[in-house]
Amino acid sequence: MNLNLSYRELHKLAKDLPRANNAIKIAVLGNHTTNFFCKALENHLLLAGYDPSIFEGDYDQIDMTLIDESSQLYNFNPEFVIVFESTLTIKDNFYAIKSNLDRSQYYKQLSNKAKSRVSHLKNNNCNAKIIYLSYELIDDALYGNLFSKIPHSFYNQLWKANNALINISENENSFYLFDINKHLSGTTNHRDWPAYINSDLHYSIDTFAELSYHVTLFLKALKGNFKKCLILDLDNTIWGGIIGDDGIDNIQVGALGIGKAFTKLQKWVKELKDRGIIISVCSKNNEDVAKTPFLEHSEMILKLEDISVFVANWNNKADNIRYIQEVLNIGFDSMVFIDDNPAERDIVKQSLPLVTVPDLPEDPALYLPYLSSLNLFETASYSDNDKDRTLQYQQEAERRKSITSVTNMDDYLKSLEMVGTIESFKVEDIPRIAQLTQRSNQFNLRTKRYTDEDITRFKNSDNYLTYSIKLKDKFGDYGLISVVILKKINKTTFFIDTWIMSCRVLKRGVEFFALNKIVKDLLNSNISILTGEYLETQKNHLVSDLLDNLSFSKIDEGFKYKLELNHFNPIKNHIS
Amino acid sequence: MNQYLDILNELFREVLDNESIDLKPETTANDIDEWDSINHIYLVVEIEKKFNIKFKSSQILEWKNVGEIIESIQDKK
């Protein structure tokens, strides 16, 4: 994917691309000509490895389409509904209002409309997430900078409307606001006025291409595909100079000169870390030398405790990144590698094409603005649990070291002194549970993505049995790491709707521990059969034989399974 | 005239995804299936980019065939 593709370059690149087996269904509803947006979005999704189907609503019929229960929209059954309103059309509607009092309340009309659109979807049993584009802040140049004092000015109303949309988003799980203004501010000529007048083209076609790039990044994040780890080179990347040559007193970081640029980059990295991004270091250095600035330089923002995996040696960087990937157990496609040296970047790009490797500008003053412009860290969920991750990964690195000292896996697992808890969903765990369904790609039997609302629905429904599993061991607490959702088929049969687990606890026997408890629980409720299936994706091969290992038997040649609970023998594990 | 026609022909083929397009000065939108009102917008933008010109709104609205597009380009060059 590439930010700077023109509409035509994008068209050319996507033209002969084979479609991956990775469907995504999106409806686009707008009050202007959205053809180019839809086409560009389709092309960007193709480049991102999806097989997109796009439903384009009729011109300026957003509400009709949503209200009408028999509309093609509901037949299409989208996963995402993108509402894209042009402020130019809104302006015409606004000017049609005569009274200034009504004009000063116009933002409420807009926000009520947004709310009712959410309800229409729900009333029609559509579980799609709504991505609502914010209103482009277009000053109609009537009141100049007095606009903020004039409630009935159009520009004033637009600011209020966008604020009202943020309020909706904070309170409505399925509603996401996509801010168009930040993406337009970087582009010149984002509108072609003659094309607007002659052809109702509200943005230039290249602007549509750029917007659809950012929407695609957001959709990817909502589908569980986002960046989890930032890997940093050290010399001339997070400080100026070379620690091994220049020494601690001469590297540049802090309030003076170019040091400022590195400090600002470090502050951003620190904020990312606090948001839940895993920070790792990959540097060609001796380890103790590389660590000195972190320990001794008073102006370093980043400290050793911020770094999950610290690799400093003279090996090939691609190999070192492979090592980091193993420790963290996340996909290469969720990693970003930052290095000032084009040769090092090239090695990594060549050997690990899935890792994102931005081409840093030469001037360190441009590092941060450039990295921000790439919008690398789109995300679909956030929970307080994210903050604890660094410690968890550091503990994992410790565990790795202890593995090497034990030869027998059984002994090793025993030595971990693991304690598990399994219980039905609790209210306070809902965000974490939803997040696991969004994030987990590998240990995920059916890859169903759920929102907080979905999880609450399962929790409160008699037709579902829900289990969340927590684990600790002598090195630390993993927290909530696995989720099982069972759906009632009939009085005696339940079906495994979801079985996911964080890869941090792979090969610990958590799935055996969980199944033993679940079977006991089901038998107590006179349920005798548990059925399941494996839905294959590009990433979940890990669990292709999960149900076999859990002693289920195949019902047919495919991936459908069944377990007779009365004949089930508890499976050995080392979790108490 | 011919030099512009060749460039336009290549551009039309790419933009309209149709390798069999063979433009003549008298070709109109009716002669090419893919040349609809939406793709017309796309074509205008790409012609402007290709020749680094900006048409006037009045020109765009008046074109009757490819020959007239070329006249507009020559005007601007």
UniProtKB/TrEMBL annotation, chain A:
One protein family per Pfam: FkbH_N
Every BF1531-like N-terminal domain range: 25-214
Signal peptide extent: none
Superkingdom: Bacteria
Protein name per the record: HAD-IIIC family phosphatase
From TrEMBL, chain B:
PROSITE patterns to which the protein is assigned, alphabetical: CARRIER (PS50075)
Family matches, as Gene3D superfamilies: ACP-like (1.10.1200.10)
InterPro entries with a match to the protein in the record: ACP-like_sf (IPR036736), PP-bd_ACP (IPR009081)
Domain annotation Carrier: ranges: 1-77
Superkingdom of the organism of origin: Bacteria
Protein's recorded name: Acyl carrier protein
Organism whose genome encodes this protein: Flaviramulus multivorans
